[in-house]
Amino acid sequence: VKMPLDYSKWKKIEVSDDEDDTHPNIHTPSLFRWRHQARLERMAERKEEKEKLAEQKSSAEKRVQDIQEKLKVHGLDEKERMKLELEMNDLKRQEVEFLKKEKELEDKERLEPWNVDTIGHEAFSSSDLHVETPLTDFSNALLEVKST
């Protein structure tokens, strides 16, 4: 029984040969340039969103550490302690929201179709140089002995 080809892995690719057929009234290079520019802008927005989230998360973690250090001090009056504990609870809620946002960003990135800029990446880079070394006097002498 012959298995039909499974094309599902190519469903999520934004690269198409159909782009060669555009309407005659549309300037094709401009259209490609606009699409590429829009793609780059989306990627930049996503990167900026990630950086902003990471920055907010790190500042919140730093604030949590500061509050924990202040709570360890025994000379705080009850009002100060309550205020710090409330702020700590707010920061913990923010942390949960940050985790949700991170998950959403990861899902967006995973589900986004591949395009020309993201379809391939260099897995490893290596260069092999094959350089012939010149024969030394000793090896020349061996060659002469073998030939005689």
From TrEMBL:
Q: Which GO terms describe its biological process?
A: protein folding; protein stabilization
A GO cellular component annotated for this chain's UniProt record is:
cytoplasm
GO MF annotations in UniProt: heat shock protein binding; protein kinase binding; protein-folding chaperone binding; unfolded protein binding
> Which segments constitute the Cdc37 N-terminal domain?
4-127
Q: What Pfam families would the database entry show?
A: CDC37_N
For region Disordered, the annotated ranges are 43-65
SMART domains named among the record's database cross-references: CDC37_N (SM01071)
Q: Which InterPro entries match?
A: Cdc37, Cdc37_N_dom
What is the name of the protein in this document?
Hsp90 chaperone protein kinase-targeting subunit
